[in-house]
Amino acid sequence: MGETDTLKKWINESNYIVFFGGAGVSTESNIPDFRSTDGLYHQEYDYPPETILSHSFYIRKPEEFYRFYRNKMLFPNAKPNRAHLALAKLEQEGKLKAVITQNIDGLHQAAGSKEVLELHGSVLRNHCTRCGRFYGLDDILKMKGVPKCGCGGVIKPDVVLYEEGLDNEVIERSIAHIRKADMLIIGGTSLVVYPAAGLIDYYHGNKLVLINKSATSRDGQADLVISDSIGKVLGDAVGV
């Protein structure tokens, strides 16, 4: 029995599937992983991405933060790919109960998923740090330099930066779903970013599936490892 057949069979047998995904789910929608520094990057920025995307850098050098953020983190024209669509379909069928994502692009919701737990927040939500007013992505794209509210306050994206803590409620809801899961599918992540990667230790079932193009630190723990495109694997398994 091939890997996709096994995956299909397990999906059919399961009633509480949880999906945990990382940057690889979005790269298939042409959103590059900001960690994969391209050749231009070194000429363009004086700091590594992990430094620029830290809370202290955002406070210290907001202009440089926003220059990088606009260039490397915002992709308003990106469309959901087969992985996003497959997960939304599984949720509509009542099989998938939650998508837990490290991505900040909102593509799971754009594909129709309802229960999406965003560990690292979303570029679609922005708030004034002074008065709390909400701004959408379109508002941010229209502004130049450091985005400012009408009240004069700086607008900050609802994205978890390095040095900032994850939202406890999101973590607790994620753990609750993973504990109840009879199947956990992990895709498009190398499972190195903590605390997010530690969430999978709460899974106690026997259908742990890892779908990633390259090896991960947890391959030995998985019940099924598929080294291929997540869009292709999930799209073929679910039929989208």
Describe the structure.
The longest helix is centred in the last third of the chain and has 13 residues, at 168-180. It is built from 11 helices and 9 strands. Strand 2, helix 8 and strand 3 (116-118) form a beta-alpha-beta unit. The chain has helices at residues 3-13, 23-27, 39-44, 49-52, 55-60, 62-72, 82-92, 107-111, 137-142, 168-180, 230-238; strands at 17-21, 96-101, 116-118, 121-128, 134-135, 155-159, 183-187, 208-211, 224-226. The chain is elongated. The strands form 2 sheets. The protein has a 6-stranded parallel β-sheet, sandwiched between helices. A 3-stranded antiparallel β-sheet has the order 5-4-6. It has 2 domains: 3-31 and 80-120 and 165-238, Rossmann fold, CATH 3.40.50.1220; 46-75 and 130-159, no CATH class. The two termini are 21 Å apart. It has 240 residues and is of the alpha/beta class.
The number of helices is: 11
Instruction: Identify the CATH homologous superfamily of the largest domain.
Output: TPP-binding domain
What is the total domain count?
A: 2
The first-level CATH class of the largest domain is given as: Alpha Beta
Name of the CATH architecture of the largest domain = 3-Layer(aba) Sandwich
Instruction: Characterize the overall form.
Output: elongated
The rounded Rg comes to 18 Å
- The fraction of residues in strands falls at 15-25%
Helical content (DSSP H or I, runs of 4+): 25-40%
How many strands, what sense, and barrel or not for the largest sheet?
6 strands, parallel
Mean pLDDT: 93
Spatial arrangement of strands, main beta sheet: 3-2-1-7-8-9
CATH names the topology of the largest domain as: Rossmann fold
Head-to-tail CA distance between termini: 21 Å
Q: What series of H and E elements makes up the topology?
A: HEHHHHHHEHEEEHEHEEEH
Report low-confidence residues grouped into runs of 5 or more: none
